[in-house]
Design brief:
By secondary structure, this protein is an alpha/beta fold. The chain has helices spanning about 35-45, 75-80, 115-120, 135-140, 145-150, 155-180, 185-205, 210-220, 225-240, 245-260, 265-295, 300-320, 325-340, 345-390, 440, 445-460, 480-490, 505-510, 535-545, 555-570, and strands spanning about 1-10, 15-20, 25-30, 60-70, 90-100, 105-110, 110-115, 125-130, 395-405, 420-430, 435-440, 465-470, 495-500, 515-520, 525-530. It has 20 helices and 15 strands. It starts with a strand and ends with a helix. Belongs to the RecN family.
């Protein structure tokens, strides 16, 4: 849920911080006080497009920061996708800074992010509905998802099985397309694969060859330096010079001297033995140095050959893999693919048989899903009808149309998609005698808001979005309908955090937390403040909504009665 919202330099807001609570949070205030600006600021956090005109006059940038309490497990996939490190306590901090120049700086838990990342993660955090913001109902394509959200667990299991089968179906189709496709394309593919295989095979690569060649190249490139060093060491240790004895000679003399006294004491004998061992070790080292020196022969032709070979291996690595092992693995895959293409007749026939089998299985699953949707559609129609009746739309009739599409495309293939073969659309008639029509063509803004509220009431127990915002969806309603809207919001707030911007006392009195948005002018500068109301202040605000600025004892009494009714209603768990 949204715990805290901080807004700086947006429109008439200088700096505002709002602490939001569980349940139903209601924002009220005079027209133009800045309630819509707060919703616009939340939309900024959700990655929506912004106009630089929103930046407060005289400022060069605006900042919005939101703190959410989230279920890390529910957001695990999107955290991993974006490389976000979740906090152990489930805190998620999202911020967005935008400037007059159009630059955006976004962060998620301190990590730099893009606007599209905000949008992706925002879809899991908040769902906003307003007088003109019910796009999901206006988009026919979203109706199938709303219906499936209402359906029982069996349809989700079927869709999971269908998804796996669809992936198998598409994989077989892609293989068939490659094997049975355009002849010219097939010949080009054969030539290309054969070229790659020949190029790798001709190289006759050996395991770890590049490492050994690099070692040899290093020695050849430094041959003169190595020979000089080994010769010097050979002289010092083995043969000596005209003026100085070698280490071997010195150690030999030491052995001879120690032999004279070795029998006098055991410790002298031990030292003598160690010197003899050292003498043998030095002789071995001298022999190895001489052999290593004599083996080195600077050969420019050999160095050129090694350079040429390493260059070949480098080019093959760039094309086929970053190691000799991966290059060989690539060749094996290419050989297998070439074999499949060259021997495709038998394989094509097998794939066609497999495709027919999978297609039949997929079609059966699509049928089962469709049947489940039709069952859910009948139940949803009844439940929405009840809710609409309760929301004072007594003549409204909503119909959920589920059409199973058995048509095929120009290739004779069924039009499978991730949802099956169904087309789902919600149709409505709001007055007696009117035919059923698409929602976008018949429902007014106020009706659309109540329809969405009816759906959200029904889906409250299964909807995974933790926070719902209703932005002035009460426009155009009053009286009993307004009371019912408030009751529905209260019901939804038992399972979700609800934030409502309203002008109706019937909704304000149902709130668990009330906030008053006020605009003030100081030294020719306009600013907005947000105050959380205590019990007495809530009563006066409800009275103000009922009777305007002139708050009388009668309006206060009326407000007190409405608040008491709301308290009893919520405590009794009605709806």
């Amino acid at each position: 849920m949204l715990q805290r919202l901080q807004i700086q330099n947006i429109a008439i807001i200088d700096k505002v911080e709002i602490e939001l609570g569980d349940g139903l949070n209601v924002l009220t205030g005079e027209t133009g006080a800045g309630k819509s600006i707060i919703i616009d600021s939340i939309k900024a956090i959700l990655g929506e497009r912004l106009s630089k005109d929103l930046i407060r006059t005289g400022k060069d940038k605006a900042v919005v920061e939101a703190v959410f309490a989230v279920d890390n497990d529910r957001l695990k996939d999107i955290f991993e996708e974006f490389g976000i490190e979740p906090e152990e306590d489930g805190t998620l901090i999202v911020s967005r800074e935008f400037t007059l120049s159009g630059k955006n700086v976004c962060r998620i838990n301190g990590k730099m992010a893009t606007v599209s990342m905000l949008k992706s993660i925002g879809e899991h955090l908040i769902d906003i509905h307003g007088q003109h913001d019910n796009q999901s109902l206006l988009r026919t394509g979203s109706h199938i998802d709303l219906l499936d959200s209402f359906s029982d667990e069996s349809i989700h299991n079927l869709k999971s099985e269908y998804g796996k089968k669809l992936a198998e179906y598409l994989e077989i189709k892609n293989k068939l397309k490659l094997l049975s496709g355009d002849q010219n394309e097939r010949e080009r593919k054969i030539d290309f694969l054969q070229f790659q295989i020949d190029e790798i095979r001709k190289a006759k690569l050996k395991p770890n060859e590049d490492e050994e060649l690099s070692r040899q190249r290093l020695i050849l490139q430094n041959a003169e330096r190595i020979i000089s060093a080994l010769s010097k060491v050979y002289e010092l240790m083995g043969i000596g010079s005209k003026t100085e004895k070698s280490a071997s000679d010195i150690i030999g003399e030491a052995v001879s001297v120690m032999n004279d006294i070795s029998k006098l004491d055991q410790k002298y004998a031990a030292v003598t033995k160690r010197l003899e061992s050292l003498s043998f070790e030095v002789e071995d080292i001298v022999a190895e140095i001489r052999s290593s020196r004599d083996e080195i022969d600077y050969d420019q032709e050999m160095l050129d050959q090694i350079e040429e070979r390493l260059d070949l291996i480098y080019k093959l690595k760039k094309k086929y893999g970053d190691s000799i092992e991966k290059i060989k693995e690539y060749m094996e895959r290419a050989q297998q693919e070439l074999k499949e293409i060259l021997n495709n007749e038998e394989l094509v026939n097998k794939l066609k048989d497999d495709l027919k089998k999978v297609n039949d299985e997929l079609f059966i699953l699509a049928r089962k899903i469709s049947a489940k949707r039709r069952e859910a559609a009948e139940l949803l129609e009844k439940k929405i009808g009840f809710e609409l009746d309760d929301l004072e739309m007594k003549n409204a009739k909503l119909k959920v149309i589920v059409e199973f599409d058995e048509s095929t495309d120009e290739n004779g293939d069924r039009r499978y998609n991730h949802n099956g073969l169904d087309k789902v659309e919600f149709l409505i008639s709001t007055n007696p005698g009117e035919p059923l029509k698409p929602l976008a063509k018949i429902a007014s803004g106020g009706e659309m808001s109540r329809i969405m509220l009816a759906i959200k009431t029904i889906l409250a127990n299964v909807d995974k979005i933790p926070t719902l915002i209703f932005d002035e969806i009460d426009i155009g309603i009053s009286g009993k309908a307004a009371q019912k809207v408030g009751e529905k919001m209260s019901y939804i707030s038992k399972k979700h955090q609800v934030i409502s911007v309203t002008h109706l006392a019937q909704i304000a009195c149902m709130a668990d937390n009330n906030y008053y948005i006020e605009k003030s002018v100081h030294k020719q500068s306009t600013s907005t403040t947000v105050k959380k109301l205590d019990e007495n202040e809530v009563k006066r605000e409800v009275a103000r909504i009922i009777g305007g600025t002139n708050i009388s004892d009668i309006t206060l009494k009326h407000a007190e009665e409405m608040i008491e009714y709301a308290r009893k209603y919520k405590n009794n768990g009605m709806v």
